[in-house]
Amino acid sequence: MKFMVSLLLVCCGSVESLHADTTEAADASALYWRSGDLQTIDADSTVPSPYQDDDWYRSDFEIQRNWIGTAWRAENAVFAQDRLTLRLAPVTDDSTQKSFFGAEVQSNDVHGFGRYEVVMRPSPAHGVISSFFTYTGPHFDDPHDEIDIEFLGRDTTRMWVLAYSDGKKLPGKWLELGFDAADAPHLYAFDWTADRIVWFVDGKEVFRVNSQNPPAPHHAGKIYMNIWAGGPSQRNWSGEAPADTQAEAQYYCVSYQPSGVKTPQCSDTFSIE
After folding, report:
1. 240 is known as an active-site residue
2. Choosing from 117, 146, 150, 248, which is the catalytic residue?
3. Rounded distance, CA 49 to CA 151, Å?
4. Helices (H), 152-272
5. Which residues of the chain have pLDDT under 70?
6. CA 165, 168, 171, 175 torsion-angle sign
7. How do residues 84-136 score in pLDDT, each as one tens digit?
């Protein structure tokens, strides 16, 4: 494996409306974040990083539903050295009824049709989910549109891909990777257009959904990365994380290339030999 990577490549063009159609986000440009530009932040530091201030929001809240057993805490998302590390650990205080504190990072801007890439290494901890996805929904006055890449810690030799359009689930699939994703970083991607979504692993197409009923998602959404443990209603799918679970997911590069616009991508500096 040859791996030369800059930390984050993100679209940073502003989009005024969070419920904009993807065509309104298509003119956004991209900025390349290099590891040499990264300011190291101590693991226990609560000082915001320049990435949170400029392009990213570190979630600090919880979802009051029983499918998730995790509360987001900003200090569990650490930009340091050459990567973003998202951490999960048991709750040790009475600030929440959840079992774990996890981490989530979301882009401040929304993004539409184009190519999304991530170089990541998910957690192999049982009952823990590591993910990369786009999302918008009722919280942003939109229908539920989402495109997912997810890894379950109980079997990181597979990847789960799925999408929602106007709240309707499109066909998803478990994809056999032929390697253990938790062993080393790999490049995962999807191309999103008005009539299809195509997922890739290390540059090779692995699954596609063509326009049908429902059609492909069409609302611009935020980019998300998170680590979490499933709650009671989710455990048949995710497995149950032992009470003492501590886990990390690592993200080395993220890129968004709008349709019809030539910008740098994670795949420019990542290759498998």
Report:
1. no
2. 150
3. 26
4. 235-238
5. 1-54, 213, 273
6. positive
7. 899 999 999 999 999 999 999 998 889 999 999 999 999 999 999 999 999 99
